[in-house]
Amino acid sequence: MKKDLISITDFSKDEYLRIMDLAADFEANPNQELLKGKVVASLFFEPSTRTRLSFETAINRLGGRIVGFADPDSSSATKGETLHDTIRMVSNYADLIVMRHPLEGAARYAAEVSSVPIINAGDGANQHPTQTLLDMYSILKTQGTLDNINLFMVGDLKFGRTVHSLLQAMSEFENPIFNFIAPESLQMPRGYKHHLEERGIRYFEHEEFTDIISEADIIYMTRVQKERFSDPMEYEKVKDVYILNKAMLENTKPNVRVLHPLPRVNEIATDVDSSEKAYYFDQALNGVFTREAIISHVMNLK
Amino acid sequence: MEKNDMKKKLKLKVSAIKDGTVIDHIPAKSLFEVISILGLDKIENQITFGTNLESGKLGAKAIIKVSDKFFENDEINKIALIAPHAKLNIIRDYEVAEKKIVEIPQKITGIVKCFNPKCITNHEKITTSFRVINTNPVALKCKYCEKITAEDQIKML
């Protein structure tokens, strides 16, 4: 049976750990010709330069060749071709499909249609599992473990798919603590809190972004997006509240690291960049190794 | 007076089935959806409907009697989402041979529309598929977009 990666919950804890091991291996030795002679289709039905370059770098470092498109205007979708037909055709050409799509569930559907593995590079607001795995690899690298992590999530916790998937994945490990810092209108949805309660995992909710972060091992920042607010007044009230600056990191633990899925706008002040606790650019680099690991895993290359 | 006569007449008429299935306690507003889900508009059996009948529990109820038709459980459970209190009487030779209640299945394939407008199933010709994660109230998790359609958001396809 072919392996796909559509949703972070498709993988078991053992598979998470295997991806972590493989990522470390690729970090030590990034250029391995495991995809030599293989063709990978990179289908971006919605532009995402960052994710696409990360995947394409990973594929190149594995010695694979790439076909595909970077934005929907240059794809057959503009001629009205269905996703079904595009995937049927491309799965005859390529050995692996990496896809990003604006509609939710598109990747799951593609996996049903395709004869080759599908890696979901984001389907609308639903899932972006490779981001979650690179977040986990970043936590593992900076903390030495994925157990006993006190994880602070800050900003838009309602719509942010990265925090939802990370919550699901980290709840598989020993004794995590979650702290949610968000305006009332962007709090962690009920269903995810229920998920933690069912597993007896502790979590705390805060509206104020204050020195409570002194407890944190990881501070995961997200962007508060204007388009999420139906009331512009509400946005004006909160937009500058969830900003991290260097002074706020003074009394934090020495091991704390600041993560952000990028792109950032103003939620991390640029003075944080020079702090040894800033980790978001390294996190992005970890994405290449993690994606090499994911590709190798789903294609049974290692 | 006139209303009672009508009820009596209807009762007489719908009682007259020799073999088949009586589906009772359907919410009156769901009658036509039940007909459509069970495909009763496409079969040639004799069928009698009654609707807007008085019912203490449901307000207004509907009843369907289908001659010479015996449903499989899988088939009949499809109506559980819109007629959760429906009761079936299996009739053989004018007698009630068996009684059944409907049960919400664990998986719902087709029938229901995903509530999420950004779900791929609302943009391409795909059979919807849901896992029933709660039965009272009903909550359906879409296999594709992973969003939950709650009971008051359920729309039939």
TrEMBL record, chain A:
Positions bound to L-aspartate: 79, 161, 223
Metabolic or biological pathway, per its Swiss-Prot or TrEMBL entry: Pyrimidine metabolism; UMP biosynthesis via de novo pathway; (S)-dihydroorotate from bicarbonate: step 2/3
PROSITE patterns in the record: CARBAMOYLTRANSFERASE (PS00097)
Swiss-Prot/TrEMBL GO biological process terms: 'de novo' pyrimidine nucleobase biosynthetic process; 'de novo' UMP biosynthetic process; amino acid metabolic process
Positions that bind carbamoyl phosphate: 50-51, 100, 128, 131, 262-263
Domain Aspartate/ornithine carbamoyltransferase carbamoyl-P binding: from-to ranges: 3-140
Catalysed reactions listed for this entry: carbamoyl phosphate + L-aspartate = N-carbamoyl-L-aspartate + phosphate + H(+)
Enzyme Commission number(s) from the entry: 2.1.3.2
Gene Ontology annotations for the cellular component aspect, listed alphabetically: cytosol
The entry's keywords: Pyrimidine biosynthesis, Transferase
Top-level class of the enzyme under EC nomenclature: transferase
Domain Aspartate/ornithine carbamoyltransferase Asp/Orn-binding residue range list: 148-297
Pfam families noted in UniProt: OTCace, OTCace_N
Family: Belongs to the aspartate/ornithine carbamoyltransferase superfamily. ATCase family.
Function: Catalyzes the condensation of carbamoyl phosphate and aspartate to form carbamoyl aspartate and inorganic phosphate, the committed step in the de novo pyrimidine nucleotide biosynthesis pathway.
Quaternary state and interactors: Heterododecamer (2C3:3R2) of six catalytic PyrB chains organized as two trimers (C3), and six regulatory PyrI chains organized as three dimers (R2).
PANTHER family with a match to the protein in the record: ASPARTATE CARBAMOYLTRANSFERASE, ORNITHINE CARBAMOYLTRANSFERASE, MITOCHONDRIAL
Name of the molecule in the record: Aspartate carbamoyltransferase
Organism: Draconibacterium orientale
TrEMBL record, chain B:
Start and end residues of each Aspartate carbamoyltransferase regulatory subunit N-terminal domain: 12-102
Domain of life: Bacteria
Gene name of the encoded protein: pyrI
CC annotations in GO: aspartate carbamoyltransferase complex
GO MF entry, a single one: metal ion binding
Family assignment from sequence similarity: Belongs to the PyrI family.
Matches recorded under InterPro entries: Asp_carbamoyltransf_reg_N, Asp_carbamoylTrfase_reg, Asp_carbamoyltrfase_reg_C, Asp_carbatrfase_reg_C_sf, Asp_carbatrfase_reg_N_sf
Aspartate carbamoyltransferase regulatory subunit C-terminal domain sequence ranges: 107-154
Cofactors named for this entry: Zn(2+)
GO biological process, one term: 'de novo' pyrimidine nucleobase biosynthetic process
Cofactor note: Binds 1 zinc ion per subunit.
Protein function: Involved in allosteric regulation of aspartate carbamoyltransferase.
Subunit (UniProt): Contains catalytic and regulatory chains.
SUPFAM superfamilies referenced in this protein's UniProt entry, alphabetically: Aspartate carbamoyltransferase, Regulatory-chain, C-terminal domain, Aspartate carbamoyltransferase, Regulatory-chain, N-terminal domain
Binding site for Zn(2+): 114, 119, 142, 145
UniProt-recorded name of the protein: Aspartate carbamoyltransferase regulatory chain
HAMAP family linked to this entry: Asp_carb_tr_reg
Keywords (A to Z) from UniProt: Metal-binding, Pyrimidine biosynthesis, Transferase, Zinc
